[in-house]
Design goal:
mainly alpha; two-stranded antiparallel sheet; 2 helices; 2 strands; 62% helix
Length: 82
């Protein structure tokens, strides 16, 4: 099998960095609400811990999906096969 070329990423098509801050801020806001619920005695320490882990896992999933969708758009640079 001959070498066909390196993948070339088209950076102009990525929308990921623009939304990254928005998703992170939503995560911080949700963690602040969870902490407030804990401080008021509505949830236990274990519940607080699990909810915070779930929140950041969800945010990470959003960022990963968004990144994989926008960065997979690649083209292959053509080079002569040997």
């Amino acid at each position: 099998m001959a070498f066909k070329g390196w993948p070339v990423v088209q950076p102009g098509r990525r929308a990921y960095p623009a939304r990254k801050g928005q998703h992170r801020q939503e995560g911080y806001d949700e963690v602040e609400q969870i902490t407030s619920n804990y401080n008021m005695g509505f949830i236990t320490n274990n519940e607080r811990y699990n909810q915070i882990i779930d929140t950041w896992t969800h945010v990470n999933g959003k960022l990963s999906r968004r990144s994989s969708i926008s960065s997979v758009r690649t083209t292959t640079a053509s080079t002569p096969s040997t």
